[in-house]
Design a protein that fits this description.
With 132 residues, the chain is mainly alpha-helical. It contains 5 helices and 2 strands; from the N terminus they run H-E-E-H-H-H-H.
Length: 132
């Protein structure tokens, strides 16, 4: 019994599709007014996301997650997730995109946390009065 044909035939085909998606993200521009008063297109690469990559591939995230469970695709998909994470982090550090949105995305999708560490040296004395 045969099911639907695979959307992605091999890890290499998946990597090639991702490379095409990343090239697509790099094609975006924004028109701005130059000092001479002319409109000029300035490159404004789109920050990649897993969701947009899935739409680019005409599949949903569940399908990509199913591929990730297959041993032959696992490494490639981990690499894709890592590259997307790195691109978001670089965009945040370079002031590209919406800072708040990037931080929110990194917290929700990549395990970032707000964390405060308090270091203390010396003793702590706790006195409790247990009388009524």
């Amino acid at each position: 019994m045969k099911g639907r044909p695979r959307k992605i035939e091999s890890p290499e085909a998946l990597q090639q599709a991702f490379d095409e998606y990343m090239a697509h993200c790099a094609t975006f521009t924004k028109s701005v007014l130059s000092n001479s008063g002319k409109l000029v297109d300035v490159p404004t690469p789109r920050v990649p996301t897993v969701g947009e990559f899935c739409r680019f591939m005409k599949m949903d995230r569940n399908t990509l997650d199913e591929y990730a469970q297959r041993e032959e695709f696992s490494r490639t998909i981990k690499s894709i997730h890592s590259e997307i994470h790195d691109a978001k982090q670089i965009a945040l550090l370079n002031g590209e995109g919406n800072t708040t949105g990037l931080i929110f995305d990194l917290k929700c999708n990549h395990g970032w946390k707000d964390k405060t560490t308090i270091e203390h040296e010396g003793e702590i004395t706790v006195t409790m009065n247990l009388t009524q």
